[in-house]
Amino acid sequence: MEKEKNVKYIEGKGITLITTVANQKKLDRYKDLEHYKDILYQCGKCGTCRTTYQEEFWSRVCPSGEFGKFEAFYLGGKNLLSWGVSSGKVKWSANLSKILYQCSVCLACTQQCQIPEIHHYAGEWLMAMREQAVKLGLGPMPEHSRYTDHILMENNPYMEEHNKRLNWLPPHLNQSSNAKIAYFVGCTSSYREQNVAIATAEILNILKIEFKILKDEHCCGSPVYMTGQTDKAKNIAETNMKIFNDAGIEKIITSCAGCYRMLKETYPNKFGIKHEIEVMHLPEFLLEKFNKGEIKFDKDLNMMVTYHDPCHIGRHMGIYKQPRMLLKKIPGIKLVEMNRNRENAWCCGSGGGVRSAFKDLSEFAAKERIEEAKTTSADAIVSTCPFCLNQFKSNIKNEEIKAFDIAELVRKVL
């Protein structure tokens, strides 16, 4: 399946571009709810946001709606609620706020909507509604507040100690104190999926890349930002930028999709923290090295895999091709696609604060994706986000299918 050859995406996103009449309203991104209030009413209540529009057998796409089984949990309902509060016809309440947070902000719904303004901007006002809930004291959810408090104290959302962040680091790994390249490990790889961190660092060593891991690495701020706590997230970002600049970093390699999006997109474009640091996700970096002849794979994995598109690098950032191209270059790998893939991929259910605050919804989404992966007869589901990986591993029963990060597979063949 080679969709990328024929599909154009909105600049900076992995949501398809809809070409319409010349007078289509064009708005800025990352604004408050007031900025979007004049287009909220355009929702036609058609329900197109619920399924893959004219593709993939009209499969369902919204974990929140399918689990909540009520209009308010789909994009159409959220649009109506947003219009109601912005026009003063609906009053904010704790229940309304809870509905807004029962959503991973995966943006699969915006991909499907064929009303151009909603297709382009609904993701912006979904986040603006969360910001407004926080300003009114109705958000975030208690679980989000708890992990945010811990991030502000210990720089991670996992209730772990900051001084144990590098406990995963094996003594055989080589780092250069003068390196201009940093491997930004991220909280999930540091504390939960340490195999991803080890594999990534070992790959960089094998490739003789001069890099370093920051001794005082902090959370990127994504869990805080995605729950509408923008001011706190911006403060975290400013602290991180000082750490990067003081360390003389010119390039950052990430293995976490959420960290990648925060550092590359959210810091400069939402927070206004402009920087000259090049940010690359690991599959991008490795594919570039492969194309230059700087990587040689000398083992055969003999494995059939299916690839899961993380929302943060897929619909949010437009990275679909590179991970697939890298997987296809691994000897013995046969890549088979799930029915819902790329811009139509079903979310794993862990993002947007859903996994911490709405565990039943999170498990529902993960199990549906796992079942879909199993229908391909693949040996493993592969992703390039440790949060997705941890979500799948936590929900796979009886080892019916395995789950790997792409870094783990690359490490096996080097």
Walk me through this protein's architecture.
This protein has 3 domains: about 5-135, no CATH class; about 150-290, Rossmann fold (3-Layer(aba) Sandwich), CATH 3.40.50; about 295-410, Rossmann fold (3-Layer(aba) Sandwich). About 45% of the residues lie in helices and about 5% in strands. The chain contains 18 helices and 7 strands.
Overview in brief:
The protein is α/β, with parallel strands linked by helices and about 425 residues long.
Work out the strand percent: 5-15%
Task: Estimate the global geometry from the Cα principal axes.
Answer: globular
Distance from N terminus to C terminus (CA atoms, Å) equals: 28 Å
CATH architecture of the largest domain: 3-Layer(aba) Sandwich
User: Can you tell me the number of structural domains?
Assistant: 3
CATH class of the largest domain: Alpha Beta
Outline the fold blueprint.
Layout: H1 33-36, H2 63-68, H3 75-86, H4 94-101, H5 108-112, H6 116-135, H7 142-154, E1 181-184, H8 187-191, H9 194-206, H10 222-225, H11 230-246, E2 251-254, H12 257-269, E3 278-281, H13 282-291, E4 303-307, H14 321-329, E5 333-336, H15 354-357, H16 359-374, E6 380-383, H17 386-395, E7 402-405, H18 406-412
Parallel strand pairs: 1-2, 2-3, 4-5, 4-6, 6-7
State the main characteristics.
single chain; 414 residues; Rossmann fold; 3 domains; 3-stranded parallel beta sheet; 43% helix; 7% strand; globular
